[in-house]
Write a structure and sequence with these properties.
heterodimer; A: 578 residues; alpha/beta; Rossmann fold; 4 domains; seven-stranded mixed beta sheet; five-stranded parallel beta sheet; 36% helix; globular; B: 191 residues; Pyruvate-ferredoxin Oxidoreductase, domain 3; six-stranded mixed beta sheet; 40% helix
Chain lengths: 578, 191
């Protein structure tokens, strides 16, 4: 049956049809739905792991046990999982292992736009790159076969526009291959120097065998058209090229981007006049083509930055870009904002008011950096808030320690905050760490994590006790505050900053968007009382605006959290709608 | 047939997902190639959101570029104005007149532009502006704004009403079907 299917869902369908039995992942836009959709099949065991490294190692274990296994992550997640990846390249697999890495060119929801193909090249692991949902499904199945035939993990690289676009797929039935019983094999699986040194030649030979396979298997295909121009491309860039040129040019469409073919590229180059490469981000295909001694054009015409589009391709090739009419009007930007009722708001207001330096982390709460709160000083990567505050306070001394805090979400803390916390506890800096516990992984769309007490299917699971964990690590000062209570927040922050020892504040209240959270009725403004002082505007709540000089509440957004009313000097906010 | 382009724009959380789902289903039922593209994650948090729907004999790119949209369907007035440049010459904007203040307006740094419908028309663009929220409430739920908009879009589509209803039956829970059909009718026949 033909269906319109999200790229990530088609990937999950491919896992199902390939007989995949084990999935362990950490959520990250734009990769999350692969695992969420896989979890809807009862035949596949699925879990959220605390981080990508743990997920990949769990998938490796499942492979050792003889099952087809998968783990999924976003591009920066692969940095975390790079350690097992680079050595799993040496050990190879028992049951097939497929890894999804989803890049985010254009940074719709990311802190950088690194090109994951570098990891495939550096780890010498094959990488497939689908250009639509049908290929995502087909390649997922092929990836397992390659993994087992060539004894290697296989990476499948998605990007935002493949992961989050729906296109037509045809599904088929699930076929589960026979289990491969676990057999002890020390030279293959124990990567100590004496064994690893013997596995390295295997890895190099495997790359050449995979290259030969790619030349003839059909994974890369030539679409001959006009021969004045020949374009080598892959992924969505292929779609933009076809959109603009149709059959007017010839195209070599690559489905495998590591290792890259040699003979196929030389043959293609011989058949066309001028050779181009169209690829997003780094010139990886282009550099390879150049090492083959071929003349090629690419990044001299197209950007190293962001996503491409059909107009960008048109302009690069000297065609006229399509144009519309721009409205001659200043249109205010509409940036993402913290939701009305977001529990992070009260806490960030407190930090802003106390003029704290704030070491930030990755999650919805990064929006605390946006005006009017402007409360975050630094955001680097998962877990960096705690590690960095330690360095900041050790290097800067007591003056820094007395006004600096680290903020980290519950899921990010589980991901890679605990090791940083161990460093604070062990090497003793007077750091104040605030865990923003909203009882969910928020930014990526509400995934469970080890602190929530539920698993990926929403069934009861183990629950890590944050207070007990911090105390066990040696923190004497661990306290919990409700971020809706501004007085309590202010007191906690002031006292812990003053304390001459490490401390943890857990700012605890569930995400306002969680279905089980019961909200109060929207507040209303008593305009007779409101003096228009705009104190309530300091918290950047999207439900509050100034209308005719007085505060006004949008009752479709307000959830009655009451943070604004604690700021009002005249008590103008009243419970219940006017 | 040549590829046609519909952009659905609005504010994160307004419910454009159902609209693109309905449209995708409708077009697939006609035996066409279809691509629907959206962005999840950070930009959904009350930000400006856009969904691309493309259909034809063979669709390549998942996105719509400036000057390419046959239709822009907007859940919010400012968003229609923001994305207007994506409309192709002769294209049609169908917009809800609802206004949602963005943060620069809320903080008082900027004003919400006035008379946007008139200004868009004055720049030579065809604009069909209706009060979808009011019509959705008349149909029985403020949440049916998306279906009111689809009803209005159907006004410009050369497709029988039955195919819209068939697509709706496939994706809307049975208990909300009558309400949604009413919302669709109200949108279609709005003055």
């Amino acid at each position: 049956m033909k269906e319109l299917m999200l790229g990530n869902k088609a990937f999950a369908r491919g896992l199902y049809e390939a007989g995949c039995c084990f999935v362990s992942s950490y959520p990250g836009t734009p990769s999350t739905e692969v695992t969420e959709e896989a979890a809807k099949y009862d035949e596949i065991y699925c879990e959220w792991a605390p981080n990508e490294k743990v997920a990949m190692e769990a998938a490796f274990g499942a492979s050792l046990a003889g099952k087809r296994a998968f783990c999924g992550m976003k591009h920066v997640g692969l940095n975390v999982a790079a350690d097992p990846l680079y050595t799993m390249s040496y050990t190879g697999v028992n049951g097939g292992v497929v890894i999804c890495v989803a890049d985010d060119p254009g940074m719709h929801s990311s802190q950088n736009e690194q090109d994951s193909r570098h990891h495939a090249i550096a780890s010498k692991v094959p990488m497939l790159e689908p250009s639509d949902s049908a290929e995502a499904l087909e390649y997922a199945k092929l990836a397992f076969k390659l993994s087992e035939d060539f004894d290697t993990p296989v990476i499948m690289k998605m990007c935002t526009r493949v992961a989050h676009s729906q296109s037509v797929v045809e599904t088929s039935d699930r076929v589960v291959p026979a289990d491969k019983p676990y057999e002890k094999n020390i030279p293959k699986y124990v990567m100590m120097p004496g064994n690893a040194i013997r596995r390295h030649p295997f890895v190099e030979e495997r790359t050449e065998k995979l290259r030969e396979w790619s030349e003839t298997s059909g994974i890369n295909r030539v679409e001959m058209g006009g021969t004045d121009i020949g374009i080598i491309t892959s992924s969505t860039s292929y779609q933009y090229v076809k959109e603009v040129f149709g059959d007017k040019v010839s195209v070599l469409k690559l489905g495998m981007v590591n290792p890259l073919p040699v003979k196929q590229i030389k043959d293609f180059a011989a058949k066309v006049g001028k050779l181009y490469v169209v690829e997003e981000l780094d010139p990886i295909i282009e550099d390879h083509v150049r090492t083959l001694g071929l003349e090629v054009s690419g990044k001299d015409k197209l950007s190293l930055l962001g996503e491409f589009s059909q107009n960008m391709v048109r302009e690069a090739f000297g065609e006229e870009a399509k144009k519309g009419v721009k409205l001659d009007e200043q249109i205010p930007m509409r940036p993402p904002v913290m939701c009305a009722g977001c529990p992070h708001r009260g806490l960030f207001y407190t930090l802003s008011k106390n003029k704290c330096n704030v070491m930030g982390d990755i999650g919805c709460y990064t929006l605390g950096a946006v005006a009017p709160l402007s409360a975050i000083d630094m955001t680097l990567c998962m877990g960096a808030s705690i590690s960095a505050i330690h360095g900041f306070n050790k290097a800067g001394g007591g003056e820094n320690a007395s006004k600096t805090v680290a903020v980290i979400g519950d899921s990010t803390f589980m991901h890679s905050g605990m090791t940083g916390l161990a460093n604070v506890a062990y090497n003793q800096s007077d750091s104040t760490i605030i865990i923003l516990d909203n009882s969910i992984t928020g930014m990526t769309g509400h995934q469970q994590n080890p602190t929530t007490g539920y698993n990926i299917k929403g069934d009861p699971a183990g629950k890590i006790d944050l207070e007990a964990l911090c105390r066990a690590m040696g923190f004497n000062r661990v306290r919990v505050v409700d971020p809706y209570d501004l007085k309590a927040c202010d007191q906690a922050v002031k006292e812990e900053l003053a304390a001459k020892e490490p401390s943890v504040i857990i700012s605890r209240r569930p995400c306002a968007l969680l279905k089980y959270v019961k909200h109060k009725a929207p507040l209303s403004v008593n305009t007779d009382k409101c003096v228009g002082c705009k104190s309530c505007m300091k918290i950047g709540c999207p439900a509050i605006s100034i209308k005719n000089g007085k505060a006004a509440i949008d009752n479709t957004l307000c959830v009655g959290c009451g943070v604004c009313s604690q700021l009002c000097p005249v008590g103008a906010f009243e419970e219940g709608e006017a | 047939m040549e590829t046609k382009n519909v952009m659905i724009v609005g504010v994160g959380g307004q419910g454009s997902l159902l609209a693109s789902k309905l449209l995708g289903r409708l077009l697939l039922d006609q035996g066409l190639d279809v691509k629907v593209s959206e962005v999840h994650g950070m930009s959904q948090r009350g930000g400006s959101v856009v969904t691309y729907v493309r259909y034809g004999d063979k669709v390549y790119s998942p996105v719509i570029d400036k000057g390419e949209a046959d239709y822009i369907v907007s859940f919010e007035l400012l968003e229609a104005a923001r994305w207007m440049e994506y409309l192709k010459p002769g294209g049609q904007i169908v917009t809800n007149v609802q206004q949602i203040d963005p943060m620069p307006v809320i903080t008082g740094a900027m004003e919400y532009p006035t008379e946007l419908v008139e200004k868009m028309k004055a720049s030579g663009v065809k604009v069909d502006a209706i009060d979808c929220l009011e019509l959705a409430r008349q149909a029985g739920s403020a949440k049916a704004v998306n279906i009111v908009l689809m009803g209005r879009l159907s006004h410009y589509f050369d497709m029988p009403e039955e195919s819209w209803y068939k697509a709706m039956e496939a994706i809307v829970p049975a208990k909300f079907l009558e309400m949604n059909k009413k919302a669709f009718e109200l949108g279609k026949d709005a003055q």
